[in-house]
Write a structure and sequence with these properties.
heterodimer; A: about 600 residues; mainly alpha; MetI-like fold; 2 domains; two-stranded antiparallel sheet; 26 helices; 2 strands; B: about 375 residues; alpha+beta; Rossmann fold; 5-stranded antiparallel sheet; 8 helices; about 40% strand
Chain lengths: ~600, ~375
Amino acid sequence: MMTGRILAPKLLRDAWGKLHNHLHFAFVVIVVTWLVIIPLLNLIVFSFRMGHPTSPGPWTLAKYIGIFSSAVLWNALLNTGIIAGCGTLISIGCAAFFAYLVERTDLPWREMLWTLIVLPMAIPGILFAMSWILLLSPKIGLANIVLRHAASLFGIELSDGPLNIYTVGGLIFLDGLRGVPTAFLLIVGSMRMMDPALEEAAEASGLSKSKTFFLVTAPLLWPAVFGAALYSFISSLESFEGALAIGLPANIFMLSTLIYFQARMIAPTDYGATAAYGVIFVLVMLGFVWWYLKILRRKEMFAVITGRGFRPRIHGLGRWRYPIFGIFVIYLILTVLAPTLVLLWASLLPIYKVPSLEALGRLTVANYHALVTGARFWPVVWNTVVVSIATSGITMICALLVSWVVVRTRLRFRFALDGLMYVSYAVPTIVIALALAMMYLQVPFKYVPVYGTVWIIVVGLVVHYLAFATRLTNSAVIQVHRELEEAAHTSGIRPGGTLLWVTVPLIAPAMVAGSLWVFTHASRAFSIPLMLASRRNEVLAVTMWNYWDNGDVGLTAALGMILIVTLAFITFGGRRIIPRAFEAGTASIKGQRS
Amino acid sequence: MIQIVGLSKSFATGKDVVSAVSDVTFEVQPGEFYTLLGPSGCGKTTTLRCIAGLETPDAGKIAIGERTVSGDGIFVPAYEREIGMVFQSYAVWPHLTVFDNVALPLKHGRVGNLRRAEINDRVLESLRLVKMDSLAARYVPYLSGGQQQRVALARALVVRPKVLLLDEPLSNLDAKLRDEMRLEIKELVKGLGITGLYVTHDQVEALSMSDRVAVMFEGHIVQEGVPREVYEEPNSLFVAQFVGFANFLEGEVLDPPADGIACVATPYGNLSCHSNEVYGKGDHVVVVIRPEKLRIGREETDPLMNTLKGVIRRIVFRGASLECLVEVGSKALQAVFESGSAVREGDQIELSFAAQSCAIFRH
């Protein structure tokens, strides 16, 4: 017969009693410390030092004093605030309007509209920005040429313009369009879940239809809309692609591009100052994330929008039913059709030309041929595949282990762990990359040979996606009744075996969906790979940017088209597999409960 | 077989610390079927989970067989204890078939290193015990609640545990199935000769299945004994209220107990009651009478018989019995008669009952 383990000091014994069912817990602590805590602390520490990470100099406050006394930071903050703020207003306005139309009116083809509204997510942000430069650059922008032609019909002759993407307005426009799909997904649920009785009660009390909308419906939806707006604002704050492709040439700095500029475009790099910018950026983001979480919590207390499944009341559109479709057509043109068509056009020309009959005769697949036969292409594809697969696998495994500690244990520190996930969500991608670059230049971390390889990119992306992935695995693990795991323990199966044979198979659908999500996002990730780029670790998005930077519009567009088509296939394939797996999984888990 | 000494466990809920089990001590003999009975929140499930190793006790000692599994600086995790457990939610694994559910503990559990054929035999043997062998290939979500619970039972038994722990296994089943399973579980456990520890809030289950019952309330064991003892001689007002149905008559002691019989003044009249406790004149007490102890008719021969006059106000036909509400003065009493009794609503009757069958407790 086995005897229990005997442990001497009481303090250790108690800790051991609590922990030793969760040995993987030690692993979680190490991983999280390594991935999140050390890089961030290192960044903060270094912002107070002189010198280079390889040979840190004396302590100093000079970096912060310099930053706060120059106009650069204030300028960037102002730009970032204006662009993110106005962009969010556009996104939320469109998203709330679309959500209302799709869920609460008798608009036909609702299913199709759903897909259409979220379709723009498939286009990588950097490509979106590039395509809009091709459309709205003052001289060669396609849309501008069309507008100039139209103006000349009225006798107005313009040599450039009338629109210019290289302005704050242009950045707001792009940011607004980009934000619509996510904001829509965040709002649409509460539109649908709203209890129709609340509105019926208002009308039964004698309120008119419009008063009901403004006095009941709108206030009820406000928390959800405001939450979505804040989320959208936070994403816009750290957005990088548009700011890089459009903002930098126009000398409009946002916080993210300011850091990129400091770290990669000025030589020699002032690491201390860059780190200080990074710390300031994180603090700004943390403030908003904290506010967002507070709202989320309050929203839960706002119990009027319940999870009960009702069919909401439908607002009849009458004769507007079909004309209103025009709005969606415009949206589709702006977000998907115009950008992809202009990219397709550019990819088929050796030298970019404005569309004309003459240019039509010169169309060729030479760019695609040059890409595929070039020495650079396949190593970059390989890098991208490695980064995407490794990132999705590692992210989901870490997320699962973190969730297991957060959901299944009663350790006091689990709340800290959960909170830390939110902190990592608040760290902008550009700062993650900066912090990692600085960490792996320094003793002792530089002995881990990841600097300049694809693996430092993988680490950065894992840190970035971990927050989202743990949300997903948290809710998946919560769905698995605790007794299903306890039954394994009382059957003599150890925690490792329980995780492997019981928990993982049960939440497999969520794990598959999560890995696919991370995979598709990692395969087109831009800011982290660009910030950490070396000759050895280039991925597709970075190569694309390098072509663009060199003025090779044709190659850029061809590579972009390849990326879009590949991603579309993966997403479409996944779309058919995942929901089925989801249904089977959740049905069987819920079937357990009485 | 199971020894629990001074077991305590409390939980932190927000800022408060709630004591779930405090200083519980009991012992279950080998082969005995022992039940923890109590209302929800009384600590019975926590006690069971401490024995299973799913909770870490704050204090106290737990031994299963000869082996201390908790206490004295030892904590044996659940997967190393020689137990089998059946959960309230069944907790059968929905991604596996009936066969695989029962086989998993043999494949990946502490038993270890069994040959395929051996696993096969043991799983089928276990499924035969619970009459589920014909459905071995089916996925468990496609089973009824009762069938799922049988699979859970087979899974708990397949590791041949010394002790079987059952956490309200019948509470999710419908009434008819519950009656069947009650007998079946008891026969199965007795037939295999294993020690059973059963947790329930249902007094019918507790009384009909157990060799011994412990009634728990607010983290303590209030009374322990064979089912008949707990039912017939409750040691407190709580046990009398919780186990079985009873009439509660408030009153005042007229004559303090002599020879175990006291006289109590109640709104129903003066009653002779059985008591071994010491009461003074004028003490406020509650007289407890089980409805089935009430008889129709007068039995004047016995001086220790109480007699009350009343009118039958309502009769509920229960099949085997009649449940009657009898109005005595301005008050009412519940009485249960055989269903052959010739009584009708509005009948004037006399009720008699022995002093031995009414107990008194301090108010």
